[in-house]
Design brief:
0% strand, mainly alpha
Length: 154
Amino acid sequence: MQNRFKRVWAIPISILIIVGLYYVPPIHSRLAWRLESLRTKVQYLVKPPEEAVFQPTQQAQLDLAVTKMLQTLQATLTPPATSTPKPGPTLQPTVTTTPLPATVMMEAIKYEHQHGRLNYCGPANFSMALTFWGWQGDRDVIGKAVKPTDKDKN
């Protein structure tokens, strides 16, 4: 009795294990295209595409469908007549913006170079922007906060 119980459950359990293993990414990436190729071969064996026979009645049905669609489109293309709107109050023109100056000199920014450091353009730019607002630090202070190590290339 117990032996038959094992045989009855052996096949479904084996199928579940195989399906579960198939979806493990390394196995799936190696088997998916092979199973797709096998499915295509079986499909072409059962119903070969070169044996598909063209039947002119299909063309007549297609022509009828196209004709009906064109008639429907022609009927709906004409817009319904609407009354012309009454003229409303005249809108006031919008205020024109002040033109930009040809050049601007921002005196409060302190230039900081990134030389001598590995890819320090971010901390240097951030430091220059903050000095405009009165910050007294430099690129090294920001670099310690933004870059975790000296060898960080980002």
